[in-house]
Amino acid sequence: MTGSEEYDVVIVGAGFSGLYAIHRIRQLGLSLRCFEAGDGVGGTWYWNRYPGARVDIESMQYSYSFDEGLQQDWKWPEYFSPQADLEAYANHVADRFGLREHIEFETRVNRLRFDEAENRWHIAAENGRTATAKYVVAACGSLDATNVPAFPGLDTFRGQWYHTSKWPKEGVPFEGKRVGIIGTGSTGIQAVPVIARTAEHLTVFQRTPAYSLPAYNRATDPEYEQAWKANYPDRRAAMFGNFAASYMENEQYRSVFDYTPEERLRILEEAWAARNGLLFMRTFSDIGTSLEANTIVAEFVRGKIRSIVKDPAVAEMLCPKTYPIGAKRICMDTGYFEAYNRDNVTLVDVRADPITEVTPTGLRTTAGEHELDIIVFATGFDAVTGSMTRMNVTGLDGRDLRDKWADGPTTYLGFLVAGFPNLFMIHGPGSPGVLAQMITAGEWQVDFVAGVIADMEAAGRQRIDTAPEWEQRWNLEVEQAAGQTLYNEADSWYVGANIPGKPRVFMIYIGGFDRYKQRCAEQVANGYEGFVFDAPIGASR
Ligand code: NA7
């Protein structure tokens, strides 16, 4: 293709938010193009094909709300869908709403340059594709940029190695193989029991043990499905007004200290036996805010780990003790701790016995070499900011986004970065991100951006920006919200602690999706306060 094609809007990413952005922006009558790095739609659920990959939010709610026909027609076979079902759903949506024709696949955007004379973004991709657009909607995912730790010698390894989020479509046979997996976050915990079933031997390299709770996944019960389908509009409305963009039934929600120790234990036992991980965390109201309350629940969970894992030394290694439960994303598993009772699974504590290098035949720790045929990196992501900074984004005066964010990301309301006009992020830093249910929160954010663009077009505006003082104010709100919780207490990817050298900043707005929506709406209603346009603008909403 020669020359750059001109669009009103370029959308980066055809994951769940990007797909909805195509649908929504098209309704504005604007020209658009979506560039997607993969050869299919689905984003997270396209890339993460590792064994055991499954969503940890119930599928009846982890799905689009924008079309009643879609939510009535679609059938989710399981409570918590496996990757393949989510990918099939994304494909169905792309076809049902005619979105595919707007997408160029295998087109990884690696350059975004704002031309301030033209007020247009110049977009370039690895495959040579170029385009320009008045607006860019970056729906490129907060868990997209892979983190492969820089162990010396990886290039000398004679076996195969994979990062879980770039898993080969054809799958990886483990039969007869000695497999090593590094990482025990949500991903590692899902993969371990599945790999253990077929591998000759599985060695799990654990740096920090995780709190994991039973997922209780099962086939979708027809009555449960019917209850959702008969009440979708009401339930979706409740989700849009909820702090986690989720539908919550039968909330118990009282302080741990409202109960006697015996009552607490009974409640926790009942919760353990029936409530999946995220629900379990809402058994009491103060698990996330009071260290004392948190310790009671954490100790209960450690007790469960000790009761499942037969070898007491291994059980102790698997017990998380260094951070409060819930301060990192709670994991949900199907037979994770039980996997350590198998003869073919070994646990290595790499905090006590660190990995020093990859050798041609395996992984070396200080204690010696572990011979391996396959290494699986379940080592997570350069989360929230990585997918943006890896795109080589330059704004006004040629400023590089990486320089702007050198001390941590700054945004206004999670959407805009001062000095990078007409660039809207979905699930960007300072938005509720993974602390809200991402499909619903993404729909809302896309609707918000579409509303802003509609207002700009109606007013004939060319440029929208924000100012550093408004970024500072918003960052302060983000920081204050996190400060009221125990989330800062863990070295999680929420604070960038998993990436060496990344500034420690709480990157997610934890004040609640409901509060976030309210704050965004207030600023717009207040004459677009904090937004900077090339000339004044009135809000239509
Ligand atoms: P996570 O949650 O970031 O987990 C990554 C795991 O990899 C975690 O156990 C890390 O230990 C471990 N890790 C990372 N770097 C290393 C090195 N250098 N050496 C040893 N171990 C390492 O990523 P996931 O993919 O599991 O989950 C991401 C999100 O997806 C999850 O939160 C859900 O929202 C869905 P650490 O804890 O940093 O010591």
UniProtKB/TrEMBL annotation:
Key words, A-Z: FAD, Flavoprotein, Monooxygenase, NADP, Oxidoreductase
Cofactor: FAD
Enzyme class of the recorded protein, top EC level: oxidoreductase
EC number assigned by the record: 1.14.13.-
Keyword match Repressor: no
GO molecular function annotations of the record: monooxygenase activity
Pfam families in alphabetical order: FMO-like
Key word Nucleotide-binding present: no
Family stated for the protein in its record: Belongs to the FAD-binding monooxygenase family.
UniProt name for this protein: Flavin-containing monooxygenase
Organism per entry: Paractinoplanes rhizophilus
